[in-house]
Amino acid sequence: MKTIITIQHTQSIHHINGMVGSWTDWDLSDMGKKQSENIGKNLLNEFKNRKNRKYNT
């Protein structure tokens, strides 16, 4: 069986400034950094000892 996991972007400075939409990259907020660390840990646990492919855009 295949598993598909989608992940929404983490919080950036852009979001906490109340801005919407952008064509530039913004630094992550402190919360965004914590969110991305948690995502990495969860993915590591989820795919431990399993073949997998990752795609990003």
Give a written overview of the molecule.
With 57 residues, the protein is an all-alpha fold. Helices cover 37% and strands 0% of the residues.
Q: How much helix, percentage-wise, in residues? A: 25-40%
- Summarize the helix and strand pattern as letters: HH
Flag low-confidence runs: none
Query: Class by helix and strand content?
Result: mainly alpha
Radius of gyration: 14 Å
The first-to-last residue Cα distance is 24 Å
Largest sheet composition = none
In percent, how much strand structure appears in the residues? Answer: under 5%
| Principal-axis shape | elongated
- Oligomer, anyone? single chain
> Helical segment tally?
2
Total strand segments: 0
Kindly report the average pLDDT value.
86
How are the SSEs ordered, and which strands pair?
Elements: H1 13-16, H2 30-46
List the defining traits of the structure above:
57 residues, mainly alpha
Briefly characterize the structure.
It is built from 2 helices and no strands. The chain has 57 residues and is an all-alpha fold.
